[in-house]
Design goal:
Layout: H1 9-20, H2 32-40, E1 49-55, E2 60-65, H3 67-71, H4 80-85, H5 92-107, E3 119-127, E4 133-145, E5 152-161, E6 171-176, E7 193-195, H6 199-209, H7 214-221, H8 225-239, H9 244-254
Parallel strand pairs: 6-7
Antiparallel strand pairs: 1-2, 1-5, 3-4, 3-6, 4-5
Helix pairs in contact: 1-5, 6-8, 7-8
Length: 257
């Protein structure tokens, strides 16, 4: 029997954001499940992994596999409310804010050029059906783009139980391809969030630490100075640091440069 659980305000806001992406009429594709079984069913699912696909037009999970093995809930009962309701109460608000920021950026995209470069990775705690908690690494990527509107149509989520690797209550996260994702740790939460810069951000950061200016960095990496500034701003905001000097000290301390 499914138990209704009241979601924290930030998690409820994420739910509304997800449902807000449902702007197109629901697709009536009778062969959708069969098509997904044929396509995604070929993906290997290693022990401790679960997979699900969320369709924004239809506003539902259209495919799920391994939810039972990892969390103990039946695969066919996997829906947005269950997955959000299983978030650890301490992690849920922060995980929700991260995902909401990514979804808001994603909702503005049209026909992304490098589809598979878009990925959000977050590790957090989830409650299993037996009431115990595990640490999972959730990685979300774009699965399908609507050919008419160019909007992102569905996302693919791979979750892995990493309890044996990480059991702390810190939340690690990475965002690849989400340059316009506007996220800053809420006040007082920076010590619980651990941002890992993308490879390109690390390349920019390494040159900042060497004292190079935006024009020099842009020329070396064959990108615009605007892009350099965007990477610099994103790293500062996402780490909760105030300026480049603080950023370089932090990067040196944690081994980024």
């Amino acid at each position: 029997m499914k138990v209704e659980r009241k979601l924290p305000p930030s998690v409820e806001a994420l739910r509304k954001t997800i449902h807000g992406l449902r702007s197109d009429p629901p697709q009536r594709n009778k062969d959708l499940k069969k098509r997904l079984e044929k396509l995604v069913g070929q993906f290997p699912r290693f022990p401790g992994h679960s997979i699900y696909i969320y369709n924004y037009s239809e506003g539902r999970v259209v495919y799920a596999r391994g939810i039972h093995d990892v969390l103990g809930y039946p695969d066919d009962e996997a829906d947005l409310e269950l997955l959000l309701g299983a978030l650890h109460p301490e992690d849920g608000p922060l995980v929700a804010r991260l995902n909401q920021s990514a979804l808001e950026a994603m909702g503005k995209m049209r026909n992304p050029a490098h589809l598979h470069d878009l990925c959000l990775s977050v590790d957090y705690r989830m409650r299993k059906a037996d009431g115990s908690y595990i640490k999972v690494l959730g990685q979300t990527a774009v699965f399908e783009v609507d050919p008419v509107s160019g909007k992102i149509h569905s996302s693919f989520r791979l979750c892995k139980d990493i309890t044996a690797i990480k059991s702390s209550n810190t939340i690690g996260w990475e965002a690849h391809g989400f340059e316009t994702m506007d996220f800053q740790p809420p006040e007082g939460t920076a010590n619980r969030l651990r941002y890992q810069p993308s490879q390109r951000e690390l390349e920019v950061l390494k040159r900042i630490a060497q004292g190079k200016g935006s024009k020099s960095i842009a020329d070396e990496l064959c990108i615009s100075t605007t892009t350099v500034s965007t990477h610099r701003r994103n790293i500062l905001r996402r780490t909760g640091l105030k300026n480049s000097a603080e950023l370089v000290r932090h990067a040196t301390a944690v081994g980024w440069v």
